Fold these 4 entries.
Entry 1:
Amino acid sequence: MGGFALRLRGVQLEVPLAAQRVIAFLALQGRPVHRLVISGTLWIDSSEEHAGASLRTALWRLGQIAAGAVCSRGQTLALSENVATDIAHASSRASLLMERPEEHCERDLELLGISGDLLPDWYDDWVLIERERFRQLRLHALESLCRALSAAGAHAQAVHAGLMAVAVEPLRESSHRALMSAYLAEGNPSEALRHGGLYKHQLAEALGIDPSPRMEMLIARIGRA
């Protein structure tokens, strides 16, 4: 998250790009993967023979840098159980927050809010799919966290979570509604109304459309209060 890095006992290692791609692919799959699938995905424009050779070379180079990071079981490869990944941890916390938001901890905001996109400078199809999957998971988790913190009376943190969700996806209406509800729970209807107006203007400027009836009703209700 935020970019590729491989660290051993806190020291960042210099990893060739091909080896980075192997590690990242295995990390995002989260399970043993057949060698043919890995080589065919990472070297999609190469012949099967050349792709297989490229995979073997990448694994050999990785072995010189971080022996044991990747485990081979027959024709499958997987990350070693000793390798921890930030995306697995963040995905696990986000899934938990969606199901049981009351079990939040202090580090969730930091983990989901400012850690950055998944491999932001990579544009392979397999990365784009996983990036979008995590983006949706992250947004739902931040919205759930915003509502849970409001319900617990942690209003400043609730607003912070809502603002983080809005920053991740500025045009996502459900994030704006969660933030406005946090403002209301905090006792700041003027902030909620101002934010609703800003979102309505932003949506018109960007897409030329109006907010949903649900958002319009929320704005009207706040205005009447």
Note: Residues 125-151 form the longest helix (27 residues).
Entry 2:
Amino acid sequence: MTAAEPVAKDAPPPGLLRVFTCFHEAHALGAGISFLRAAEPLSAYGWSATGWLPGQGALRELAEDQLELVLGGERPLGFSLRGWREPPGIVVRGLRTPSYLREVRAALEHVRPHVVHANTLLALPEAVVARSCGLPLVLQSHELPPPGPKTTATIRYAAGIADVLVGVSDAVSELLRKHAGRTPVLTVRNGVPAAGKVPRGAVNDALFTVGTVATVSRAKGTDVFLRAARLALEQRPRMRFEHVGAADLHRDAGLDEELAQLTSEIAPQGALAMLGYRPAAEVVPRWDVFVCSSRSEAFPLATLEAMSWGVPVVATTVGGIPEQMDHLDTGILLRPDDPEAIATWLIRLHDEPDLRARLGEASAARVRREFTLERQAEGLHRAYLTALNRRFAPARIRRAMKAVA
């Protein structure tokens, strides 16, 4: 076990409720960021958070600022057969796995948490170790995997070892309940920090800028975003498009070549910038419109962040996105895989500043009402207490909880 330098002390303080959160990766993506943001409001309920992060990455740096203690080890586990085959290969990964799982156990014994929070379904191996230690277990799904035998088996297994399952949207929770049996499923929607109002006219006087924040992949609809940009620019050549998100995480065969071809077709030259990973706060507030062209989403943070800054959002009707906004009230909702429709709405929003302003103001107000970090923390607190009660409450109370699960 290796430990990063803790923020203030080498072990969580006594007397607090301790939650041990297992992250499945060290990239600063939505699932990890969403929990770190909720750590401070969780402390109002008496929770002290420790994080287990595999490997080095931007998320570790954020965690060291937000959590009481950060521990971790190099994770040899692959997320798929293709992942297992990546260097150093299946054999070496397999040989290193028992040692890694022992490191997880040693960390749990060091922290002695009251509850373990597996932050995604991909943290199932760490969750299994926590279960073997007899610790109350909350397993959260930030994913909305496609239906099929693999998804069914994964959720059933997760429900079998967890005391509580948590979905980040009603869409995710509905999928979990189909296979959870008697394990309770709670919905805890992510929140975002309060954002100050950005004067729209002051951020981009010369050019109308459309942006998106998403990892480069087919699931996130990167190709759809570029096709919509090409179509919109044919009619409004003074528009500019920016893509923010990591470009080296996808495993979509042929996507890089397709995107290179699309990029070469976008005119005028310089109308598109692929900016790579950057914190959303550095770019989104200066955009005129935010686009989410995803083919699959559970409950994206980026759309909420754009809404919180008053940036009007054009998004697809997938997963939990319709729980965030209503069409023509707090955003624009379109069916997935329709770059023509996205382009049409971008042109309309370009031409109608009053519509942009109305959507932006309404969306910011909705985020302030419904998608706060305080509400997220309250939901996680409720999930942790449910797990504790299901494991340690008197027998009659546990029987009553099972009866209503």
Note: The mean pLDDT is 91.
Entry 3:
Amino acid sequence: MEAEVAHNSAGATRTVGIGASAGGLVALEQFLGQIPRNSGFAYVVVQHLDPTQKALLPELLQRVTAMPVREAEQDTRVEPDCVYVIPPNTELTVIDGALKLARPAEPRGLRLPINVLFSSLASEQGERAIAVLLSGMGTDGTLGMQAVKAVGGLTVVQEPESAQFDSMPKSAIAAGCNDIVAPPAELPARIQACVARVRDPDTLGLDDETAPAAGTTPLQEVVRLLRQRTGHDFSLYKPSTLHRRMERRMAIHGIPSLALYADFLERNVQEVDLLFTELLIGVTSFFRDSAVWKHLEEVALPELLARRKKEPGLRAWVIGCSTGEEAYSLAMIFSEVVERLPQPHDFTLQIFASDLSPDAIATARRGTYPRSISAQVAPDRLTRFFSAHESHYRVNQGIRDMVLFAQHDVVLDPPFTKLDLISCRNLLIYFGRELQHRLVPLLHYSLRPGGLLLLGGPRRWGNSIPCLSPSSPGCGSISARTRPQRPAPTSC
């Protein structure tokens, strides 16, 4: 499991991305026609358009809404209660609160502009992202909705029976991207109600200590049901982490209190499974936090290799690997570093990558990612380490062979040992202090002398875990440490 808070500030305009294709005009009119004038959201519409024809979509949609409907222009700041429509022959993204237009790289027929928009919203707004998928043929939008789902955003799908063309809605539902499913005219009210409940903790009753069973609080009862169903213990996770994930499930079902949600879980095994999946939602990307990877490439890894000349077989462990991007990034960086060494060498790296989520591990093993990763991976790396396919990139076999993915519970299962590098980024912040202080010495003990411990920056976990001295000034994410003789807490 790996996750983090939304990247943007809470004050940024919350943006609803809307994707449609064949049959989408009717669905868009029904959807926009039911939005209240002062919803406070911005709406960005991407519909598959004929690039050779003049776009009439803004004029057509303006007939059904009092909000201004505009064709998107480069660098326009996103404002609340406005509708922005994609121009023909472009890809539309939202970056730093502004609209960005680009010419599609793929030929017509292979373009997936809805995926592009949704993926940008996932990166831009994190758990505040909202993606709406309406009528259309094909599967465009599914990968983008998976990205929104992965960061804890809200995924909304038109009920297939109400769509003129149901392929896109059915594809998203089959992929599990269906927090809300309803006819287009009902979706705005459902979104508003869901957001209002999550935004206002008082409506959720999270402080309600009315016990569903004698001697337990509602939160303890939920944790018990999770442990009983999945075998995993969340009792030492931070209550705020658990509450935030439960809020989404409660809001989706319209359940007003945690005690009632505990009762609902008791009666619905499927909801326990869905909550478990929600708690494992991962946020990851290739080469996330570029400064960390730059330091690893230019300083930390070369120094580690210099110390390992007599032991060229290195071992690394990526904890909370989610869907594999970080593990593959490490494999690529290692390959580049050893290629630049000035003399022959026998260096190899075996990466153990683990996560609690079996679905995330299955995705990681496939090594298949949407075309939108071109925004994260430099062109030379895409060419060298990936094979390009019609709708996706796949990590090349040589890089995949360096990584062994496994489902693993870092809290309960024995750790990997004799490691030269451990990456545990953005995981400890979701554990309570007791669990943090239990795991950090264990990670130290799993390292070989002189090994590297790679954590999320201090800005992510504050001072609640032992401070590990960085290997160079200004890099609070990489620590070169000698393994202690016995697992004992360290501090600065």
Note: The two ends are 28 Å apart (CA to CA).
Entry 4:
Amino acid sequence: MTTAIDVLTDRLRGLVPTHAIVLGSGLGSLVETVTNPVRIPYGDLPGFPESGVSGHAGEVVAGHIGKTPVIILSGRVHYYEHGKADAMRTPLEALEGIGVSNLILTNSAGSLRQDMPPGSVMRISDHINFSGTNPLFGEPSDRRFVGMTNAYDEDLCARMKAAANSTATELHEGVYMWFSGPSFETPAEIRMARTLGADAVGMSTVPEVILARFLGMKVAAFSVITNFGAGMTGGELSHQETKDMAPIGGKRLAAILTRAIGDME
């Protein structure tokens, strides 16, 4: 039986990526930085789920950023689409299976801080799983008891911070709270999130962080801020706003990632 690992190994023709990036809503422009790209639709990869969210391309793009071999997942599947917190398990297992050791996750998120407006980029320093679910539900082995004290790798994150400094790109840091979605948060939920110590809210990423640590990969993660949280401006939130604003912060994030990853070998 052909697996996603088999297909990736065949199509990549000797390319062995050490770094993988998962792109969030509206952040697909980062693939333009990849040289000599190999493109593989998710539909060609057994077990890869098909995203039903606009703004997610649903393809793998592999090549180089600078000196570094990389593989990019342009699009993800969210818990709210099918009620499966482990929807990204097969893609992440495939990445680990072809030799990826560093995973960089990106998302679009709502800011809970006035000093972090739409268009900003926030490095996730920690997270709060507010969804009430976990991608390791049903995992039979004791490996399911994954420590999360160092969920975000210090060395990898330090390289990202150094890249931000060298490109003069402002990089905020903060705590990301995962809500299940797909409805946006209420003003009361935003006030609660701020009280609990969150700096941004969103509907993804945390399951992938848990799965990546389960698989032994190092993780760094970033939120591109597309809006303020509900009740902070008086306006209503929409997914269209997310898609419209994501490319603005996405350019800043691309500058950081291009510098940080391009210098790694």
Note: Residues 121 and 253 are 6 Å apart (CA to CA).
